[in-house]
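Notes from the 1:1 (GR / supervisor)

We went over the backlog. Supervisor wanted to see one worked example end to end before approving the batch request, so GR pasted a single chain during the call. The sequence is below; no edits were made to it. Supervisor asked that the structure be written out right there so they could see what the output format looks like.
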Amino acid sequence: MVVAARRLLDRRPWIGLGLPSLRVAWRRLMLGMVCWLIPAAIGFALCLGFGWVEIGLPPSAADALRVAALLVVLVILYEALPEELVFRGYLQRNLATVLPAWQAVIGQAALFTLFGFLVGAATSPDRLLVFFLFALVLGGFRVATGDIWAGIGFHLAFQTVAQLFDGPGAVFDVTGLGILGIVALGGLPFSLGWVAMERLHRERLNWQVLEPDPVR
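Structure output shown during the call:
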């Protein structure tokens, strides 16, 4: 649908969706994952070190690894890649052709949050806030890097690890899941991940710029 809309409705270049060469995409994917994983590791260490959270190990390490591997595949195909392509690739890019970058980021974040509400993934105030803040970070990644692959990496790391600890398929038994979510899964990765990305791409960031596409 995105390809058809870009080609047939918008008549705009494919490059605007933020899909660079595989060599660039791989590096950006890894960067996005690191921007989530390192702050998350710090958050886990704080939660465990201060006794805020207790994590029970799974009965079988082999089963946990199989679940984690399956989650990586499912998350990138079912969540990270399609959602980044639609919201940060297509919608944010189209908004950025007529709005300053900061307004385009807020606009796609609002649409992403609405999407979460409509599909039943974000129906409580705290979940709606998580969706909105998550989308703001991912939109900022798009502005900072110019493509969607850092966002895919960040999205992939977050959703994979979060589902290992929370939800029907979780393999770890967690006491203090609320604190873990606020500190290690959300708060530190969202804030420190963005700080790292902003510092790495400070020369590119321009929140007032418009990015018009040539219409074919």
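Supervisor's comment: The chain has a mean pLDDT of 90.
Batch request approved.
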